[in-house]
Write a structure and sequence with these properties.
The complex is a heterodimer. Chain A is an all-alpha fold. Chain A has 18 helices and no strands. In chain A, helix 12 (229-249) runs antiparallel to helix 13. Chain B contains 20 helices and no strands. Chain B has helices at residues 2-17, 19-22, 31-51, 56-67, 77-82, 84-101, 104-136, 141-144, 148-163, 167-177, 182-213, 221-252, 256-274, 278-292, 296-305, 307-321, 324-355, 360-365, 375-387, 392-420. In chain B, helix 7 (104-136) crosses helix 11. Chain B is globular. The chains are: A mainly alpha, B mainly alpha. The interface between A and B is large, with 49 and 50 residues.
């Protein structure tokens, strides 16, 4: 009977997918962005998972783990592939500086504020675990997504400096977040994190990086003589699967290995015009499946502790995005003024943020990471809902004033 | 570069599996790594084999065998078991394509030939196997002590299994070569029909064999009914799935690939848990979409986009799953049975084609489309092993060895014959 439910839901999902989701509406509202970003699939996944109809039961999910792994690696690859030096060097160096200052600030702010709260809420947990979770929250909040700004691009007739700066920061910040996650996973390597020597962490981190760079070169070498599109798809799937599988095997984040593979390949290949359509045509299918699986994997439960964490995280997100900007402008001697509300345009974390939260859960299969995943996903969903309004207050109004 | 990559990948995989790095790893999380490795290694294997003018599918299979649990042991048996879902998804997609390739007009036109080929092949092979069974009885340890009735049961089942073909392999070779002509069409349709017929016939043969082997055991009608229920259920589900696809293509039209993937997953789930036949479900669904709606081309196009990775995965997993220990143990007998089966296939196909006045190409070459064996035969062997635990294990060993040989040589023969018939 459950299978029949699944079938019905499948048709419903397909219908929703085709009719509403991922469609751009003329006026960007919270609801339309939630549909556009496909985040609703997480909720559908939740319905299909253990806490809902249990169609995607733990056994089924175990069988589908390679797909989650592929989804993470694919997102990483897609992100890394866009980090092409030829494109990035067009932006002034100060943009990078601003991105770094903002990343460091929001990371420190989040860690310093969540750690005491975690200690109060979970006094029975080991201190090093709570510190790890606080660091994970810190890294999560350094991540931004350019998809909202890209979606709103149509509403910005006058794409000035602010737009390009916001796009740059949201595009690049995921890099710091993913590298941070890789460092966290390497130097706090589960299940050895209690008595792990420093050398061990270096070995895991460098090993993961070298492997991904090496595979990126091999990918480039194999596709140097432009292969047919079908062959390219197999190579793409194979390499992303391989590096993300290796990451899983050594318990480092597939997001990181996928990203490094993407960066390496992107900066050598000349097949961008073939790869991008291929990536984008496959992206949506994989992303939907990925979100459904994440929803199913999510052992959702809400209590006062999680609600308190979510509340704090939302406040930190808003504060962390807004506060450092004026100081950073002065430090970097920015050529143009940054309006006080400018930071609000960075609230969305998008798919990379979700992938990050899931990566943490998969790397550290502990009860506390269930709390992390729940708090992170609720906070992400809440900020995603709020982010179109915030963007309107910051960039769109600014644009009108320009 | 392809050769270099083909060598470097297993070397890297070997390093990952070595005790040095295994200490840093989570061995239970190796499925994704193994899957990525298999996909790349098999694809490169296919490219190398293709340079030797052999079908890429053979390369995928051989690569799967080489890195599988019996030769290089880069994939563990547990990895291969964990690939079951992907294997099932790939099978569903291949079957949907096959159903979509079956044109009702063509079937009506050649129904007599198809029936004749299925009938003649079955008669020749089953009688041929019964005959050789009596000749070989003293030389095969596990049947030498059996009574004549028991020996008949064993060879009746072996003959039934020998009749089975792997339609997915036939479809893949025809797709890869781009074959288009009367022989390819006939081979494809017959392979699919034969599978359907063989599943039903197998149910009879197994029930009959039980009554022959077990003293005092009567014909097991319940078993037969269960198999018929599975087939009937599969056809009903196939009808529902086909209808769902038609409605989707009629009213929604977007994201067809995603929907088809969902359908494949659903088919896998329902087959895996309730014993239905994914091949039948998807064949019928594809057939309905092609012949009872104007959307067949759209369906095929959507699946075609991802057909290459699907084939690589399916055949590489098939290769990795082949039991090479069985081949090592029983290869002389297996080889003899493969040759004998080939002779009988040729004779059955020749006679069947000739009765219906088919041309020389069909008479001489069409049998090559029925050599490959995979999932259906394997499934039957497992059922036999369970039904006859006293000798089912040894029986299965021989069958696995025969399947391993047939699955490797089948695509090569078919490709050569397609070229010789001038259909590619």
């Amino acid at each position: 009977m459950r299978v029949l439910y699944a079938f019905g839901l499948l048709v419903l999902i397909a219908f929703l997918g085709s009719r509403f989701l991922f469609r751009r509406s003329k006026v960007l509202s919270p609801w339309s962005f939630l549909l556009l970003s496909g985040l609703l699939y997480i909720l559908l996944g939740l319905l299909l998972g253990k806490v809902g109809l249990n169609i995607l039961s733990p056994d089924v999910l175990r069988e589908l783990t390679p797909l989650i792994c592929l989804g993470l690696g694919w997102l990483g690859f897609l992100f890394g592939f866009q980090l092409e030096y030829r494109y990035l060097r067009r932006f002034p160096g100060k943009y990078l500086g601003l991105s770094l200052i903002q990343t460091v600030f929001i990371f420190l702010l989040t860690v310093l504020c969540t750690l005491p709260l975690l200690r109060v809420l979970f006094p029975q947990e080991a201190a090093f675990l709570l510190a790890g979770i606080a660091v994970a929250f810190g890294i999560l909040w350094t991540i931004h997504s350019p998809s909202l700004i890209n979606a709103a691009a149509g509403s910005l007739p006058n794409k000035g400096n602010y737009y390009y700066l916001a796009r740059f920061i949201t595009s690049i910040s995921g890099f710091w977040g993913i590298v941070g996650l890789a460092l966290l996973d390497s130097f706090w390597h589960y299940p050895f994190f209690k008595d792990q020597p420093l050398l061990y962490g270096i070995l895991v981190f460098v090993g993961g990086t070298v492997l991904s760079v090496g595979m990126g070169f091999l990918f480039f070498a194999l596709t140097k003589k432009r292969p047919p599109e079908k062959d390219l798809l197999v190579f793409l799937l194979g390499f992303v699967f391989f590096v993300s599988g290796a990451a899983f095997y050594f318990n480092i984040p597939p997001l990181y290995t996928g990203m490094v593979l993407g960066i390496t390949f992107s900066n050598f290949t000349r097949l961008h015009e073939v790869i991008y359509p291929l990536l984008f045509s496959t992206e949506k299918n994989l992303y939907v499946v990925f979100l459904l699986l994440i929803g199913a994997l999510w052992e959702f439960h809400l209590d006062v502790r999680i609600a308190a964490l979510v509340l704090l995280l939302i406040v930190l997100r808003v504060a962390g995005e807004m506060l450092p900007l004026s100081a950073a402008r002065r430090i970097l001697r920015f050529p143009f003024a940054l309006p006080p509300r400018f930071g609000l345009s960075f609230l969305s974390t998008g798919g990379v943020g979700i992938a990050f939260a899931v990566s943490v859960k998969m790397s550290f299969p502990l009860p506390l990471t269930d709390v992390f995943l729940t708090a992170a996903l609720i906070s992400i969903l809440a900020t995603e809902l709020f982010s179109p309004l915030a963007l309107r207050w910051s960039l769109l109004k600014l644009d009108r004033n320009q | 570069m392809i050769f270099f990559a083909f060598l470097i990948l297993p070397a890297g995989m070997y390093l990952f599996r070595s005790p040095l790095l295994a200490a840093l790893s989570l061995p239970e999380q190796s499925t994704s790594l193994a899957f990525g490795f298999l996909l790349l290694f098999a694809f490169l294997g296919g490219k190398i084999i293709h340079r030797l003018k052999l079908p890429r599918i053979t390369g995928f299979l051989l690569a799967g065998m080489i890195c599988g649990p019996y030769i290089l042991k880069l994939l563990k048996t547990s990895d291969v078991t964990d690939f079951q879902l992907f294997d099932g998804l790939a099978l569903s997609l291949i079957a949907l394509t096959a159903g979509g390739e079956m044109k009702i007009g063509e079937i009506r036109k050649r129904m007599r030939t198809i029936s004749s080929l299925v009938l003649m092949q079955s008669v020749f092979i089953i009688l041929g196997f019964l005959a050789i069974g009596f000749v070989l009885k003293p030389f095969i340890p596990f049947v030498s002590q059996m009574t004549a009735a028991q020996n008949t049961a064993v060879w009746l089942l072996l003959g039934t299994l020998a009749t089975a073909t792997s339609p997915s392999t036939t479809i893949a070779v025809i797709n890869e070569t781009g074959a288009d002509g009367p022989m390819s069409d006939l081979v494809l349709t017959t392979a699919v029909f034969k599978d359907f017929f063989i599943i039903i016939f197998f149910a009879f043969a197994l029930s009959f064999s039980r009554s022959l082997v077990g003293p005092g055991t009567s014909f097991d009608l319940g078993f037969l009914l269960r198999i018929l229920r599975d087939i009937g259920g599969s056809l009903l589900i196939g009808l529902a799935v086909g209808l769902a696809i038609i409605l989707y293509l009629r009213f929604i039209r977007r994201d067809i690939t995603l929907f088809i993937l969902g359908i494949a997953f659903f088919t896998y789930q329902i087959s895996h848990h309730h014993g239905f036949h994914p091949l039948l479900i998807c064949l019928l669904a594809g057939f309905l979409v092609e012949n009872y709606s104007p959307h067949g081309d759209r369906l095929i196009q959507a699946i075609e986009k991802s057909s290459l990775p699907v084939y690589v995965i399916f055949f590489a997993i098939s290769g990795a799953s082949l039991d090479l220990n069985a081949l090592r143990e029983g290869w002389p007998l297996a080889l003899l049975l493969v040759v004998w089966r080939g002779v009988l296939k040729f004779a059955g196909t020749y006679v069947g084609a000739r009765i219906n006045g088919e041309n020389q190409d069909v008479r001489r070459f069409a049998w090559t489309g029925f050599i490959s064996q995979a999932g259906v035969a394997l499934g039957m062997a497992i059922m036999i092993e369970r039904t006859f635990p006293e000798w089912g294990g040894m029986f299965k060993t021989i069958v696995l060895a025969v399947i391993a040989i047939n699955q490797v040589i089948g695509p090569i023969f078919l490709q050569k014959m397609i070229y010789r018939a001038g259909e590619a």
